[in-house]
């Protein structure tokens, strides 16, 4: 899940047409208070964010769709590291690693050109090679967004006036939903909605997130809270090409 999931889909649509989007122990994570459903929406959300930050690591699977274009993400996130695998309609495949302040991307030519915005010849030359990005490189913030735990929570947490849904179930689990707007940092149009579903019993952890803006839809399922995440910097990475900019930043 990432702002890239939305910002890059316009590029994915173009690419489609030219080619035919927590190593802490469980005991350290707060338990859901009795009667979570009886709390105000703001407090329910605060309990969920606190539990997520205490857990420190997570896994999520997400799908973003906009018209015929789609991006599927699988992500293992920790506080200062993360691994994200991306499959893009039109054949694009890529992996993003975040290790400290460095981001590494590796993808096929379709992903490097259509999703990350590298010129065609450069994308072909660097296909299947690790490319390292630093904070000074254009598009860096969009590349790392939604990879580490903190950035995942920033993009998933609704803001503005909040309302809770009636108790329901998601994948057989009892949940309470909290609905609001998508955070402005995600880069969606005004009025984009965000609903998170939180476990109603046990630890008040996020179970699912649903975001919508126009004909774009993002669906996220969270799991593996508190499980160890190991990400290492790849060797022999090449520098991000000077003068290139990620299409997902547009």
Summed up:
The protein is of the alpha+beta class.
Provide key terms for this protein:
about 20% helix, single chain, about 250 residues, 13-stranded mixed beta sheet, alpha+beta
Can you give a write-up of this model?
This protein has 250 residues and is α+β, with helices and mostly antiparallel strands. The protein is 22% helix and 34% strand. The relative contact order is 0.23.
Give the termini separation: 17 Å
What amount of the residues lies in strands?
Answer: 25-35%
Describe the biggest sheet? Answer: 13 strands, mixed
Shape: globular
Number of strands: 13
Question: Compute the gyration radius: what is it?
Answer: 18 Å
| SSE run | HHHEEEEEHHEHHEEEEEEE
The structure class reads alpha+beta
Give start-end ranges of low-pLDDT stretches.
9-34
| Average predicted local confidence, pLDDT | 87
Q: How many helix segments?
A: 7
The percent range for helix content is 10-25%
């Amino acid at each position: 899940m990432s702002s890239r999931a939305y910002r890059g889909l316009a590029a994915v649509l173009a690419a489609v047409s030219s080619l035919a989007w927590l190593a802490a122990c469980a005991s350290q994570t707060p338990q859901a208070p009795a009667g979570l459903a009886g709390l105000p929406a703001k407090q329910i959300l605060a309990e969920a964010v606190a539990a997520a930050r205490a857990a420190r690591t997570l896994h999520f699977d997400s799908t973003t769709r906009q018209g015929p274009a789609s991006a599927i993400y699988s992500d293992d996130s920790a506080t200062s590291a993360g691994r994200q695998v991306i499959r893009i309609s039109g054949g694009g495949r890529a992996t993003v690693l975040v290790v400290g302040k460095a981001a590494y991307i590796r993808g096929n030519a379709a992903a490097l050109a259509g999703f990350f915005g590298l010129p065609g010849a450069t994308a072909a030359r660097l296909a299947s090679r690790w490319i390292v990005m630093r904070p000074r490189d254009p598009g860096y913030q969009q590349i790392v967004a939604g990879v580490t735990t903190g950035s995942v929570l920033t993009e998933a947490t609704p803001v503005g006036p909040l309302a809770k849904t009636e108790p329901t179930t998601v994948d057989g689990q009892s949940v309470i939903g909290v609905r609001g707007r998508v955070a402005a940092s995600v880069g969606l149009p005004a009025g984009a909605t965000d609903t998170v579903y939180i476990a109603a019993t046990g630890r008040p952890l996020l179970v699912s997130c649903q975001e919508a803006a126009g004909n774009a839809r993002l669906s996220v399922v969270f799991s593996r809270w508190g499980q160890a995440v190991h990400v290492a910097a790849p060797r022999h990475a090449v520098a991000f090409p000077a003068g290139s900019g990620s299409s997902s930043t547009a």
